């Protein structure tokens, strides 16, 4: 059975012995995967099913629209996050529309009226130092105390570290915004991705017999690495090709507009025309800053050098 997706708590299918965790899970990074692996294992052990309750939009966007949420760019679009969660073996995903009204639900009401009354949670698993509910009043001790009353178990996952640095979505966002792709990929435990539709690239370059495509950003708040040239893998209908990708106008802040960001891909050895196709582009490494070329031959020579560098990478 694949992952089932629900968009509220009133239209849930029957979920046997739910093993539940909650959180934004932006990036679906190595720490998130540790939690999902744990709920998957517990679910198998008790003939139950794993459940993640997550939120859209990101709570910070709703709670702090003029401060912390204003310039918050997310590692994943909604579609990307769903695809990454599907790969973890998670059985049930509940995507809650996050509103100010939902944010005002107290932690005890969230547990009593949702986790217990609607979901019938058998076990709740939370990450290290996780807090939830109105004013973040709910924590591990609070959950454990209520668990004895409402007959569910609680478990806290220890902190997950890489190279003695706490893995967090914030840290990964910072790495990506600095163009440190390989560092971000290590924290994520997979390649940073962009999903979107491909369309015919620069007419000027196509005139010069250069195969080039644009990819569209699906959501305004999608984080895009800084300007420059990157080694990428392009996946279309399970057919993959390597290539380079050029980002222009990747500004951050209130003046950023997704229409101004240009993401152009030069695929190598694509087996078919990719124009109009839905693609997933995986980033492997930052290669160089963007260069200006007056002559076609100069650009072609640079692309050949880039190709040699990309071909050396294993990804």
Textual characterization of the structure:
The structure is a single chain. With 315 residues, the protein is an alpha/beta fold. The protein has 2 domains: 4-162, HUPs (Rossmann fold), CATH 3.40.50.620; 192-312, Elongation Factor Tu (Ef-tu), domain 3, CATH 2.40.30.30. Helices cover 30% and strands 26% of the residues. The chain has 10 helices and 14 strands. It has helices at residues 30-45, 59-63, 78-87, 100-103, 107-116, 140-150, 169-177, 181-188, 203-207, 296-312, and strands at 4-6, 18-22, 49-56, 92-97, 123-126, 153-156, 161-162, 165-166, 193-200, 213-215, 228-236, 239-248, 262-267, 278-288. The chain has a 6-stranded parallel β-sheet with strand order 1-4-3-2-5-6, with helices on both faces. A 6-stranded antiparallel barrel has the order 9-10-13-12-11-14. Helix 6 (140-150) links the parallel strand 5 (123-126) and strand 6 (153-156). The radius of gyration is 22 Å and the shape is elongated. It starts with a strand and ends with a helix. The mean pLDDT is 88.
């Amino acid at each position: 059975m694949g992952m089932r997706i629900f968009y509220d708590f009133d239209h849930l299918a029957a979920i046997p012995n739910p093993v539940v965790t909650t959180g934004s899970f932006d990036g679906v990074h190595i720490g998130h995967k540790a939690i999902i692996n744990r709920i998957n294992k517990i679910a198998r052990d008790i003939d139950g099913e794993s459940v993640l309750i997550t939120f859209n939009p990101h709570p910070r966007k709703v709670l702090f629209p003029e401060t912390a949420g204003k310039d918050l760019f997310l590692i994943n679009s909604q579609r990307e996050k769903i695809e990454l969660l599907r790969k973890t073996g998670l059985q049930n995903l509940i995507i809650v529309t996050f509103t100010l009204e939902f944010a005002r639900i107290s932690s005890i009401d969230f547990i009593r009226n949702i986790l217990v009354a609607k979901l019938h949670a058998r076990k709740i698993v939370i990450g290290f130092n996780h807090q939830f509910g109105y004013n973040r009043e709910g924590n591990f001790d609070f959950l454990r105390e209520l668990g004895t009353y409402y007959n569910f178990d609680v478990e806290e996952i220890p902190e997950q570290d890489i190279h003695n640095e706490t893995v967090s979505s914030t840290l990964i966002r910072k790495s990506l915004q600095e163009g440190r792709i390989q560092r971000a990929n290590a924290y994520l435990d997979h390649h940073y991705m962009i999903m979107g539709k491909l369309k015919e690239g620069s007419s000027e370059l196509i005139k010069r017999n250069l195969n080039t495509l644009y990819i569209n950003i699906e959501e305004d708040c999608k984080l895009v690495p800084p300007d420059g040239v990157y080694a990428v893998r392009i996946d279309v209908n399970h057919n993959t090709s390597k290539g380079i990708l050029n980002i222009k106008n990747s500004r951050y802040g209130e003046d950023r507009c997704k229409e101004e960001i240009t993401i152009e891909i030069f695929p190598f050895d694509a087996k078919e025309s990719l124009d109009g196709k839905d693609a997933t582009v995986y980033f492997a490494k930052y290669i160089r800053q963007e260069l200006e070329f007056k002559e076609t031959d100069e650009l072609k020579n640079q692309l050949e050098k880039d190709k040699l560098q990309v071909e050396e990478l294993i990804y």
